[in-house]
Automatic annotation (TrEMBL):
Gene3D superfamilies on file: Cadherins
Protein's name in the database: Protocadherin-10-like isoform X1
Keyword set, alphabetical order: Calcium, Glycoprotein, Membrane, Repeat, Transmembrane, Transmembrane helix
Annotated source species: Lates japonicus
InterPro entries, sorted: Cadherin-like_dom, Cadherin-like_sf, Cadherin_C, Cadherin_CS, Protocadherin/Cadherin-CA
Pfam families recorded: Cadherin (PF00028), Cadherin_C_2 (PF16492)
Length: 464
């Protein structure tokens, strides 16, 4: 064939340039003669690179320590990434991924050299405002299909002793605090306590207290850790003739270099604590009076509202009581006599408006307790009189039916406020000798031609 004495070299597996970038192949051609002759040829095979590896950072996380009050633009750290590829596939560029730090872009805090990976601070950091922040950097190669990887950078701000201690208490006028010491105080008596704070951290915020000036008589001692000022001995009138001591207290931190501040305390000797503190009570009493005034105003306001509410409830109850309808009934005695109750006769209507009665306002109801044996309760209509308007037909109607009745006034809701009290079915002509004991002056045993009386507003209305 045309391919006789032509041979092809093929691979028996995948090639990895990063493992072996070249091969030397020796080809030997040998005949079958006697003796056999042979020749050889060496072939150099170079494996070309392909962008199959992404850059890799030397560390997944970088912790960077930066001392506060640094110079803007100062170098702070360098990040590095490696790519096993070659050529353009190994050309790495660095960048910072966008994020926010305290509401501002990370690009206002740090920057990076895209070729070297050097990081620079773009501002002066303050430990008291920002203690640490984090961001991510990216390494990207320049291959046809770009590959990349990321790493995290933690920037920790290191505190610097740039804040002096600040005295919080005691605070007095013009920078001098006044404290009172009774002359009878025992050694170790607590005069006051100096309280201070430092905005720094660590050793830079550890404080110690001492008396710089004013303790020449060794009257006081200071606890250097807690800031407590106590008496070192008893007060002697001969040894301590003066009535006050002006002390200068120093508060110092343990930073490098150490910073300090001072406080002035005037200790005044008094006969008693009450006397010494009477001056302080003046300002305290003013504040207390102001508080009492506010409390008193609040109590008065609540009391006024409660009184108005109670008064309204009383007025409403009285008004409802006045408007209540009084139902009055006649009293039925044993036998066939209908006796009017004495208490009923003395009651008067309390309505505010007078209204003319009509027959629709009155209904006569038959009593079931009479001795005549009348059956079910019946209702007797009221005949209209030509003169009085009420009562004209009582005598004629009931003269035919000699049954005994008790009368109940049934008023319509509209007439609930009228002056009508009750219907009085008393007949003096049929009374007996017991008239003198009858509260109404008559005992009714039946009906006659006499018309019943109507009591209105405490007086008997005439039916004529």
């Amino acid at each position: 064939s045309s391919f006789k004495n032509y041979y092809t070299i093929v691979t028996d597996g995948p090639l990895d340039r990063e493992s072996t970038d070249s091969y030397t192949i020796t080809v030997v051609a040998k005949d079958k003669g006697q003796p056999s002759l042979a020749t050889s040829k060496s072939i150099k095979v170079h494996v070309s690179d392909e962008n199959d590896n992404a850059p890799r950072f030397t560390q997944a996380v970088y912790d960077v320590y930066v001392t506060e009050n640094n110079v803007p633009g100062a170098f702070i750290h360098a990040v590095s990434a490696l790519d096993p590829d070659i050529g353009q596939n190994a050309l790495i560029t660095y960048s910072i991924l966008e994020c926010d730090i305290q509401g501002m872009s990370v690009d206002t805090y740090v920057s990076i050299n895209q070729d070297t990976g050097y990081l620079y601070a773009l501002r002066s950091f303050d430990y008291e405002l920002l203690k640490e922040f984090s961001f991510m950097v990216q390494a990207k190669d320049s291959g046809a299909a770009e590959l990349f990887s990321n790493a995290t950078v933690n920037v920790i701000i290191v505190d610097q002793n740039d804040n002096a201690p600040t005295v919080i208490a005691p605070i007095g006028k013009n920078g001098t605090a006044k404290e009172h010491l009774p002359r009878s105080a025992e050694p170790g008596y607590l005069v006051t306590r100096i309280v201070a704070m430092d905005a720094d951290d660590g050793e830079n915020a550890r404080l110690s207290y001492s008396i710089l000036r004013g303790n020449e008589m060794e009257m006081f001692r200071m606890d250097w850790r807690t800031g407590e000022l106590r008496t070192a001995r008893r007060i002697s009138p001969k040894r301590d003739p003066q009535g006050y001591y002006d002390l200068l207290i120093e508060v110092r931190d343990h930073g490098q270099p150490p910073l300090s501040s001072s406080a002035s305390v005037s200790v005044i000797l008094v006969d008693s604590v009450v006397e010494g503190r009477s001056g302080d009570r003046g300002s305290a009493s003013k504040a207390k009076e102001t508080s009492l005034d506010l409390t008193l105003i609040l109590i008065i306001a609540l009391g006024s509202v409660s009184f108005i509410f109670l008064l309204a409830m009383i007025v409403l109850a009285v008004r409802c009581q006045k408007d209540k309808t009084l139902n009055l009934y006649t009293c039925l005695l044993a036998g066939d006599c209908c006796l009017c109750c004495g208490s009923c006769c003395s009651r008067q209507a309390r309505g505010r408006k007078q209204k003319k009665l009509s027959k629709s306002d009155i209904m006569l109801v038959q009593s079931t307790n009479v001795t005549s044996g009348v059956g079910p309760v019946g209702q007797v209509p009221v005949e209209e009189s030509g003169v009085g308007g009420v009562g004209g037909g009582f005598g004629s109607h009931h003269h035919q039916n000699q049954n005994s009745y008790c009368y109940q006034v049934c008023l319509t809701p509209e007439s609930a406020k009228t002056d009508l009290m009750f219907l009085k079915p008393c007949s003096p002509s049929r009374s007996t000798d017991t008239d003198h004991t009858n509260p109404c002056g008559a005992i009714v045993t039946g009906y006659s031609d006499q018309q019943p009386d109507i009591i209105s507003n405490g007086s008997i209305l005439s039916n004529e």
